[in-house]
Every structure is written in structure tokens, then in C-alpha cells.
Amino acid sequence: MASSPCGNSNFDSGLEIKTRSVEQTLIPLVSQITTLINHKDRPKKSERTLAAIHRVGQAVSVAVGRFVAVGEAIASENQELKDEMGQACFEARRAGDAIAQLTDVGSAMQPQTDGRVTVFSDRTGMVKAARLLLSSVTKVLVLADRIVIKQIITSRNKVLVTLDKLERVSTFQEFVQIFSQFGNEMVEFAHLTGDRQNDLKDEKKKARMAAARAVLEKCTMMLLTASKTCLRHPDCESARINKDAVFHRMRCALEQVIEIVTEARSCGENKVLPTSIYNSIKDFKGSVECLRENLHSSTPQILAGQLETLVERTEDFTDSPYTSHEQRQAILSVCQLARQDTQQLVHAWIEAQQSVHAKEATEELEVAILKTCQSISDLRRELHKVAVGRASDLLKAHGEHLPLRALKAAGAEGNLEAVAEYSRTLTEQKEQLVETCRLLCHVSGTEPLEITCIHAEETFHVIGPQIISAAQTLALHPSSKIAKENLEVFCEAWDSQLCDMALLLKEINDVFEGRRGDKRPYLSLPRPGKHSANLKTAKAVKLDAEEQTSMAKLGLELRLLSSDVDSEVEKWEEQEHDIVRQSQSLASMAYNMYLFTRGEGLLKTTLDLFHQAEVLSEEGLQLCSSLHTFSTQLVDEEKSVVITETEKLVVLCQQLQMGAKTPVQGKTATFQKVDSSIQTTRNIMTVVLSILPISNKLNKKYKSERTSLSSLQDWGERPDVSTPVKEEGALSSKNTNGFGVKSLEQHMAGLNLLESK
């Protein structure tokens, strides 16, 4: 029973749990019911045991009552779900009442043979009531989840209608009015889909949602300038092509979001992701290692076929004109070695099947399995090195943005020939980036990262021609300020995608080196009165699309710093050290602020951001205190280094704290405060990142010295440690209460199901 909601995610109702919020809401309820069903049926039951079971049963009944009231409120606001929700609520209430009745066991003084049916005399009845309760509660939650989907669809439909109006406008005045409405609708859509993205359990869907939302985020600013350019130059063909491409891409992204939340299958999404080399390697190694357990789990023909398919996919690397001769030869050599090792494996495999000397044959087969797996791992490492190395080189080479600068200059001069020449250079760079994304996809290591690589490939493929059409428009109208602004926006989008690629590269390396970690999930179930289309927050400000775009680059820097701090923290042996815990906390809060710049995560408004900045500054000052304490054990030179960095951190934290507390009025002032808060946070994380490796090194050094000193003291006098160990064990035993009735009863009393976040 306990494994149902979190294991198979399916109940008797046949409903599948697809979001974390539904799953997390069910876990406490399952724990309580499991406690009631699995109670120890002893002949003698103490007064305390009977009272505890009674309280748990009543707590379940009360919580179900509150839960049903919430469900009925949702049903009253959504007539199309009224009947289904009403029936599910009725069943939940009936099951809750049954559990309350079965757990009404009275007192220990009451005779056990008074004829009443209780949990002790009717275990089957309790199991049936529990199943009915879990089934009906799950149904209510899944029905409530449909409200979230309905919100997203409604919001998308509003955006589409306004998008159509924007595409047909013919005057600036009309455009400004409609675009203002469009911006508000896009902000609402961004928050709804951001919550949904974080709530999804399926990592592939989450990655696809992130890709679609990234397109919408970047295209919103492009749509503004592309449309204004078209209005200013209505007869310009390149301006029209530029604008049409943006509208088309936005519609595709909106459709993809709806396909994800409704699980629809369009022609475009029916295609299966191309199999990456990483997955082929994983499948091949799985087949090889299965031979240890079962010599007949596969056949030599199947194994050879898997290897040849894998080797064939490496042609994306070896056939590339951008792969050096040395890299090509290295890949071919490892592929040849893998073939030889596989042939030896097949020989040992056949021998093991036919040999009467089982032990010797098994040992020979084990050696062949290890050699084959090693050569395949070497192939993966070689391909990873080539893909990541090329991506790093490209990012360095394109950091100067020379073709973009040249295009902007040529366009401003009205030089169409120069624009054509530099367009060819940009197209070549685009092809290099597209192919590199394809290679990264092969070595990405996870399906979500594969999806992100495909998104990056598609983005470079689309934005390249859009930059060229924008440059052509500027060359035709070199005095046009709006045409110049439009080209600038598309160049910034290209730069932003390069930043995203750098982040993607780091994540692929993290997976390869086994350092990947997950951030805290955010849950998004609706609440009564909160799940209407009107999501405006009183007296709070949200960044509009233009402001979010200008924040994107700063936010990405914060994200990279947050990830780097996490990586440094993982290198510490003492994970419970105050410096480690406080640095982790700072990295988590900085990550939340990064999500804010994308319109995602827990921070919805500027008030939320400023509060987070204030909390971050306080945590930073706590870290300063820990660093000061740590510095007391250091010698002069080492102490000076730590104190110097700590003083920098103190100044920055105080600056952030004062800025966060300073009241501002007006949109411009608020935006400046947001910008200042994020910049100061970035500076704080930079100092933290510099001080962590120094502190870790010194901590290891002094820990080693203390250990040596302790060892010398132990030779002289060994304290009697038996008593403390015994006490610690007793304490541990006392606190270990996996299904203790009292702790679970307290947990259930705090349960608020749909009302909780």
C-alpha cells in the first residue's frame, strides 16, 4: 500500500500521477493509512496504543473533510468538472468516515467483545476503506490538476488571438496598444508554464517545456523590433521575411507547450529523438554485462550488430570537415580496438557455452567482458573529448563576435556587398555551431540534455538567417534607427544562445564526471480562489518581457557562478561544515534569483526578489562570521588571505542588505534596484567562489595536523569511549521511529492537502 503512489504512480482508479505536487500531497496520507493497516495486532493493547490509533483515525477523517471542502470549492468554480469532482469527493468523504468508525476503538478498559467492528476485528474493511480513500483522493487531485492545464490552454489562446492582431496591424498607434496587452498576456503565460515545468515529473517533458519557453522568451523582444521595422518599411521584403520568421517560431513554441501539457501528438512531435551514441554505448554495455548472468541472453549476431550500429554513428565525428586528422585517427583506432575485443568476447562466450571446464571458461569470459567494456568506455571518452573540445574552441573563437560587428557596421553604411560577404562568414559559423550541437547531443549523457542540444541546434539554425535578413534591411535603410535596433536585438539573441551553450557544455561535463545535482522542485497545484485567469498580485511588480531580456545575460552569469560554487562545495570532505552549509544556501538563493530573471521559480515579483536578496545578505554575513572563526586557527599569512576576502564579502553583503531595504517608487527605479541587487549578488558569489578552495585547502591541512597530534596523544593515554558510544546508540535507537504512531499522528494533524504548497 505504501508504495502505490510513489512507486507505480497508479491507483485502482487507473489514474496516472504526472506531477510532483500531486505525488507529494499523497505521501503523508499514505503513511498514515499504512500505519493503521500495519499496526501490531497484539492480544493485549495498552490504553496509550488504543488512544493513538483513535487519534490517527480521527486526524485522517478531519483532514479528508478539509480536503473534500477544497475539492467541492474547485468544482463549484469549474462546472465542467462538477459531476466527476462531486462523485470523487463523495467517495473520499465516505472512506474517511469509514476509517474514523473503524479506528473508534474506545479505551483499554472497554471489553473487547462488545460486538463493535473495529480495525482489530475487520482488517479487510480497513484495507477496502484505505483503497477507496486513496483512489478517490487521487482522482480529486488529478481532476484539480486539469484546472492548471485549462489555465495554460486559456492563456495560450489569449496569446494567439493577440498575436494574430499584432500580425495584421497597420499603424504604430494600434501596434503599441496591442503589444502592451500582448506583453501582459505573455507574462501570465510565462508564470503558468514555469510553474508547470517545475512540477512535471517526466524530465524529458520538463526539458521540452524549457526549450519552448526559452523560444517564447527570446522571440518576444524580436517580435517587437521586427514588427516595428516592418511598419516603418512596409515595402521591404527582407523586413517582412524577418518578421514572418519570428511569428512562425512563436506559434510553433506555443503549440509545443500545449502538446506537452495535454500530451497531444502532432505530426512534428511524432518523430522519435535520434538515437545518440551515448545511448548506443549504454545498450551495448548492458548486453555485454548480461552475459555474466545468462550466457543465452543474446546472440553473437545481435551483439555484433549493436557494435556496428554504434560505430556507424561515430561517422558524425569522423566525416566532419571540422574534425582534425589526429582526432579522426584516434576515434578509428578505438573503434577497431572495440571490434577486436568484441570478437575475443564472442570467442570466449562460445567456449563458455560449450566447455566442460566451467570455472576456467567463466574466468576467460569475465576477462573478455571487462576488456570489451573498457574499450567501449575509451570510445565514449574519446568522443566526449572531441565534442567538448570543439565546442569550447568555438565558444572562445566566437566570443569576439567579429562577423556580427562587421554585419552591423556594413549595414549602417548601406554596403550590401559587404553585408553579403559577412553573411557568408556568419553562415559558416552557424553551420559549425549546428554540427557541434549535434556532436554534443551524441555525448550529452541524459535525454533532457539531448533535448537541450537539439534546441540549441535549431536555435542557431533559425537565428543565423534572421540576423542576415535584419542586416539586409538595415543596409537598404541605413538611416533607420528601428532597423538598427532590430539587428541589435537579433545579435543579442545569438549572444544569449552562445551563453546558453556554455551552460549546456558545463552540464554535459558535470554528467560525464558524475557531478550532476538536482535543484529543489516547485509545486503548482491550484487553490480555491487562486486558479482563475486573473493572476495579478496586489502591490507587487513583475518584470515585463523587455526587462527580462535585458536581465538574461546577468542572470546567466549568476547561474554559472551558482553552479561553480556547488561544484567547489562538493570537494569538501566535511559536508556538515558551517562554511559548506552556508555556501550551499547562498548558491541555492542565487539560483532562485537567476530563475527570476527568466520568469520562473519561486520568486514571482520584485518584492519576492528583494526579500530573497535581504535573506541572502544575512546568510552571507553568517558565512563571514564562520570564516572569521575559521581564521582564528590559521597562522599570520594564511589568516591574512582569508580575512581579506572575508572583509570584501562583508562590504558586499551590507551593500546588498541596504539596497534591498531601501524603498523605491516607479517602474524605472524598481528596475534599477533589481539590476543592482542581482549585480551585487553576482559579486558576492564571485568572492565566495574564490574563498572556498582556499578554505578547503587550509581546512584539510589543519585537520591533518590535528589528526596526527591526536594519534600521538592516543599512544600516551586512551580514554574510555565505551560509555559515550553506548549512550549514542541508545539515543539513536530512541529517535529512530520509522512508523511511530505519535510522530505520524502529529504529521497528519499538520496535513492540509490541497491547501498546502
Automatic annotation (TrEMBL):
Gene3D superfamilies: Alpha-catenin/vinculin-like (1.20.120.230). Pfam families: Vinculin (PF01044). Residues 715-729 have a biased composition (Basic and acidic residues). GO terms for biological process: cell adhesion; Rho protein signal transduction. Residues 713-738 are annotated as: Disordered. The keyword Cytoplasm applies. One of its GO terms (molecular function) is cadherin binding. One of its GO terms (cellular component) is cytoplasm. It is found in: Cytoplasm. The keyword Cytoplasm applies. Keywords: Cytoplasm. It comes from the Eukaryota. Belongs to the vinculin/alpha-catenin family. This is Alpha-catulin. It comes from Xiphophorus maculatus (Southern platyfish).
